[in-house]
Design goal:
The structure holds 2 protein chains of 2 kinds. Chain A is α/β, with parallel strands linked by helices. In chain A, strands 1, 2, 3, 4, 5, 6, 7, 8, 9 and 10 form a 10-stranded mixed β-sheet that branches. By secondary structure, chain B is mainly alpha-helical. A two-stranded antiparallel sheet of chain B has the order 1-2. The longest helix of chain B has 38 residues. The two termini of chain B are 37 Å apart. The chains are: A alpha/beta, B mainly alpha. At the A-B interface, helix 1, helix 2, strand 2, helix 3 and strand 7 of A face helix 3, helix 6, helix 11, helix 12 and helix 15 of B.
Chain lengths: 337, 536
């Protein structure tokens, strides 16, 4: 009995160490912020097509996609990743400006609209999410239409947003700084706090608590909102600020980028091209996360308009990245409790 | 021949201490060293900027209040629970003892979500109250400092309870019986049992305090900014030096707590000396009935309610089958890595505590382990990257799953050292001395006398380290190698996109796995104790 247990344990230890095996069949190392349940089938498709194995490291909701970007910065002197697949753009641009990413002019990026790719070729966007208003249909009869409705007295203490220091909410905050200018954006965020808007730990939490009736409505992303609808929760969602001349909503693409000095550059480029293919955008559009295709050749998922039909915020991702530092400094100071 | 023993022993001592330094001491040292070197010169700017910030007091206040509040309430509830089971001997105490650790096994983040389901503005409790009293004011929900304290208290009180139960098993019944024979039933409790188990109570409180102090998930979810939340925020904008600087006040608080614990505990090591005859419960039927109601009520509130909420979320039953199909590999990987990590922690803790000479070195090793634990998970992960991601052999280690083992060992060594120290203090030195006088070689004495006598403690340490390693995510997510996804990383990933039911089901599955593993450890522990009558 003891010997059997010992043998099982030794096998387990060897199995644990097996992840380190080097060499072997051709492979590419991917740091993926997009969740495994969506990215893995796509990566399996890549392996099937090319024979190249993808060794992925995934991020978690706990680290709000910043775990991998922190890791890429910390590993900069000896990169271990070949490719970075982020589920947003601002952190990718920060990484590009820190010299972590390498330019690559992918033929597959030609179909992507210019506002969703880096002019220097350090990253390219694909399959986007949009910021949306999610509301509880049991609690809201006339849904709000603008993010400025968060400041209305009738919603005092009844709305929620994610802490604007992480993920897409941080990008949204930086976008508002870029679109409105610092002073107006600061006034807006201070007014949010005065109107007792709840600041939650993430967009998924906003979704969960609106669905649970804790809050009447809040801001989240299309993928989070759709998850609640597919789970049969009493919620609906809409794009904010869609009126003529309105602010529009922020559309945030996934981004893919080659890591400078990664150990498998050729395989990285092959995977880069594959991720930008219409096949991948189509798969992501039809998944539970209903990602909005950027390639005009791919149709939008059901219940989501095509990208040109959505009024989007008129700000470039470079200006969003430039606004990131002042926006985050302000948010950290104001949103501390 | 006579010199080979001491030389080989010295080599082993040096190897063990070097291994300890590399695994536990060097990572935080690298972190602090890199935070004071800026552009080739020494600079304390990051520390001055952070410490002069007006927000320090708010952060310190939130962190200390959340940790101290949790420790106080967890101690009150946990110690009472421990006495109900271990002193009053309530009916069904085996069942209570088996159920007791479960709240600690559910990831705190998931536990908090379960409590929002129960106590939230539209939670089960609010709906119940609104149904009975339609005009009742709306529940504020489990948010803010009070919510953090409540959720963490319900999650961590078993630590104090289990410490008290273990201490009561070592209580020498003769003291209590002397008080009982003198006709002083209550005095047996207040003057004998309580003071003699106080070190266990204090130790449990310290552990709860430290875990609550460094916890990120619950304060973050319940909207309270503590030092770990701020450290995370600093890491987000790649200000690693500021993140390190934020860890300093937290470390100071942890050091104060640790120092206070050592000061209070020092004169009371008598409790570790072993029982001539274990305590057999001899309390009145009324007290036992009261203790029984209390014990089962606490289990109902802190375990049945949140597990029930998770179970309701995890439906339909097909979720479990789908989950196994999609996350089965991660579950097995998580179990294997946790087992290897627990073995490393136990082995290194046993070795280092055995060879550390005098009082100063053991105290220093424990202090170092506290720093490694209290520095916060994400920072420790960054430190491990800086230390190990280098060309050559260190790079080979960095590219392997060994990094997860190193991360867990660095974080949880403090608990390994504590458990092993308790065992070593109870070891009868005369047995070792008798072996030495008989000319038995040091390694034979170690392998065939000391190790078997320490086995019950080592199994306990292994079990605790296994549970903690299985739940580790903050550091693991930064250092896990490509292609290896441990269980908790999968769980936290599911929290973003995964269906609610998957998250709840995986949490229940994790708790179930750990319950089975814990039961196996307890069974082995009991079997070993039957063979090795260390406590007479």
């Amino acid at each position: 009995m003891f010997n059997t247990a010992l043998r099982v344990f030794i096998l387990a230890a060897l199995a644990a160490g097996a992840g380190c095996s080097r060499g072997g069949p051709p492979h590419v190392v991917l740091y993926a912020a997009l969740d495994e349940m969506y990215s893995k089938p796509i990566l399996d498709g890549f392996k099937k097509r090319t024979g190249i194995n993808v060794r992925a490291v995934y991020d978690t909701e706990a680290s709000k996609t910043t775990g991998l970007t922190s890791r890429l910065v910390a590993e900069h002197s000896r990169p271990r990743a070949d490719l970075f697949w982020s589920n947003e753009a601002a952190q990718t641009i920060v990484l590009a400006n820190k010299g972590v990413l390498e330019p690559y002019s992918s033929p597959a990026s030609a179909a992507i609209p210019p506002q969703f790719k880096d002019p220097k070729g350090r990253w390219t966007g694909l399959a986007a999410r949009a910021r949306v208003i999610i509301y509880n249909t049991d609690l809201v009869e006339t849904p709000p239409a603008s993010i400025r409705d968060l400041l209305k007295p009738e919603w005092r203490g009844r709305c929620a947003i994610a802490r604007p220091l992480f993920g897409t909410t941080a990008t949204h905050a930086a976008a508002l700084f870029a679109a409105w200018g610092e002073e107006e954006a600061k006034r807006f965020f201070r007014a949010l706090l005065e109107n007792e808007v709840a600041i939650l730990s993430g967009n998924a939490t906003v979704r969960d608590l609106v669905a649970a009736g804790e809050y009447a409505w809040g801001l989240t992303d299309t993928d989070d909102a759709n998850g609640a609808i597919e789970d049969g929760k009493p919620v609906k969602w809409l794009f904010p600020d869609q009126e003529e001349g309105g602010l529009g909503t922020l559309v945030i693409p996934n981004t893919v980028a080659v890591v400078r000095g990664g150990p498998n550059p050729n395989a990285a480029r092959l995977l880069y091209d594959y991720l930008l293919s219409p096949e991948v955008e189509s798969a992501l559009a039809r998944s539970r996360s209903i990602q909005i295709p950027l390639n005009p050749a791919v149709s939008a998922p059901e219940n989501v308009p095509d990208l040109p039909e959505i009024r989007t915020m008129d700000v470039s991702f470079d200006s969003i990245a430039e606004s990131m530092e002042p926006a985050m400094a302000f948010v950290r100071e104001e949103f501390a409790r | 021949m006579t010199r080979r023993g001491p030389v080989s022993r010295s080599v082993l001592h040096i190897v063990l201490l070097l291994a300890f330094l590399l695994v536990v001491a060097v990572p935080p040292a690298v972190l602090f060293a890199s935070s004071v070197f800026a552009d080739g010169s020494i600079s304390l700017n990051a520390y001055l900027t952070v410490l002069e910030s007006s927000r320090q007091w708010a952060l310190l206040s939130n962190s200390v209040t959340a940790a101290a509040g949790t420790a106080v309430f967890a101690t009150l509830i946990g110690a009472a629970m421990g006495f109900a089971i271990g002193y009053a001997g309530v009916p069904g105490r085996s069942g209570l003892t088996a159920l007791l650790p479960l709240p600690v096994l559910i990831p705190a983040y998931v536990f908090a979500i379960a409590w929002i389901d129960i106590l939230g503005r539209s939670g089960y409790a609010a709906r119940l109250v609104q149904g009975a009293f339609p005009n009742a004011p709306q529940s504020p929900g489990p948010y803010g400092l009070l919510g953090v304290i409540l959720v963490q208290t319900f999650a961590y009180y078993p630590i104090t309870a289990l410490a008290v139960i273990v201490a009561l098993r070592r209580l020498d019944a003769r003291f209590c019986e002397a008080a009982l024979l003198a006709g002083q039933g209550r005095r047996a409790f207040w003057s004998v049992a309580l003071p003699m188990t106080m070190p266990a109570v204090l130790t449990g409180s310290l552990v709860v305090f430290l875990i609550a102090l460094v916890g990120y998930a619950v304060p973050s979810l319940l909207q309270v900014t503590t030092y770990p939340v701020e450290i995370h925020a600093s890491s987000v904008i790649y200000d690693f030096n500021a993140a390190t600087a934020h860890a300093v006040p937290m470390l100071a608080v942890a050091a104060l707590a640790f120092g206070g614990w050592a000061f209070l505990l020092r004169p009371r090591y008598a409790w570790l000396s072993g029982a001539q005859r274990p305590w057999t419960p001899q309390v009145s039927a009324r007290s036992r009935a009261f203790a029984s109601i209390y014990g089962w009520l606490i289990i109902a509130v802190t375990l049945v309610l949140p597990l029930g909420a998770l179970f309701a979320r995890s439906m339909p039953p097909a979720t479990y089958l789908n989950l196994w199909n999609t996350a089965g590999d991660e579950i097995l990987t998580g179990l294997a890595l946790a087992a290897v990590s627990a073995t490393c922690i136990t082995t290194l803790a046993f070795g280092v505590d055995r060879v550390a000479p005098g009082r100063l070195v053991p105290a220093l090793t424990r202090a170092t382990a506290v720093v490694s634990f209290a520095v916060s998970g994400p920072l420790l992960g960054l430190a491990l990257i800086v230390l190990w991601n280098r060309p050559g052999p260190m790079g080979l280690v960095y590219d392997s799953a060994a990094m997860i083992v190193l991360a867990c060992s660095a974080r949880y060594m403090v608990f390994g050292l504590g458990g092993v120290r308790a065992g070593h203090l109870r070891l009868d030195a005369r047995l070792r001395e008798a072996a030495q006088l008989s000319g038995v070689r040091w390694w034979r004495s170690l392998l065939f006398i000391e190790l078997p006598l320490m086995f019950p403690y080592l199994i306990g340490v292994w079990g605790l380290a296994f549970i903690l390693s299985l739940g580790e995510v903050d550091t693991t997510v930064l250092v896990c190698p490509p292609g290896v996804t441990p269980l908790t990383v999968r769980l936290f990933a599911l929290m973003h996109y995964g269906p609610d039911s998957y998250v709840a089901a995986l949490s229940l599955l994790t708790a179930g796995i750990v319950l089975v593993a814990g039961t196996a450890v307890v069974a082995v522990h009991a079997a070993v104790r039957r063979r090795i009558p260390i406590d007479a």
